[in-house]
Structure formats: structure tokens, C-alpha cells
Amino acid sequence: MATTAAIKRLKKKLPERIAEVRGDRSQRQFARDLGVFQQNVNRYESGTTPHTDFLLTMATKENISLDWLLLGKGRMRRSR
């Protein structure tokens, strides 16, 4: 079972991984691509815990592995 400290470390890395998925796109363009508000992208990259809907949308539209996104395990992109 994961410790509280381990969970905190994982949550700390999430904004970095979201920014990595965004890549060179502006937050505004990334939000547009996902169909979400730019303010949400900004908040999530700043450390606010993202809503499940956002994570699922990003994983689906960007072909991102949820294991990589949430846990840092495996490859960023899912196999097709």
C-alpha cells in the first residue's frame, strides 16, 4: 500500500507531466484541443489536483497512458 508521502510525491509530479503532454502548445491552444477552459490547464499545471474528467479527456485525446500520467510508470504514449 502506498504511503501518504509516496502519494504526495506522485501528485507533485503530475503538473510536470501535464506540461510535458502540452509540449510547445500554449495553454490556450492545449485547452482548445482538449475542449476545456485555459484556466483549468493553468491551475492543473500550477499544482491544483485535476478533475477525473480532465485526466480522462487528456489521456484519450492525446493517447496518453494513465499509468504514466498518474504514476510515472511505463511509456507516455499508449500503444495503438
What does this structure look like?
With 80 residues, the protein is mainly α. It has one domain (4-71): lambda repressor-like DNA-binding domains (434 Repressor (Amino-terminal Domain)), CATH 1.10.260. Helices cover 64% and strands 0% of the residues. It contains five helices and no strands. The protein has helices spanning 4-22, 27-34, 38-45, 52-61, 66-71. The longest helix has 19 residues, at 4-22. The chain is globular and about 35 Å long. The N and C termini lie far apart (31 Å). The model has no long low-confidence stretch (mean pLDDT 94).
The H/E string reads HHHHH
Q: Describe the main β-sheet briefly.
A: none
As a whole number of angstroms, the C-alpha radius of gyration is: 12 Å
Name the quaternary structure: single chain
Might you state the CATH topology name?
A: 434 Repressor (Amino-terminal Domain)
pLDDT average, as an integer?
94
CATH superfamily, please? lambda repressor-like DNA-binding domains
Which residues sit in consecutive blocks of at least 5 with pLDDT less than 50? none
Distance between the termini: 31 Å
Annotation, overall tally of beta strands: 0
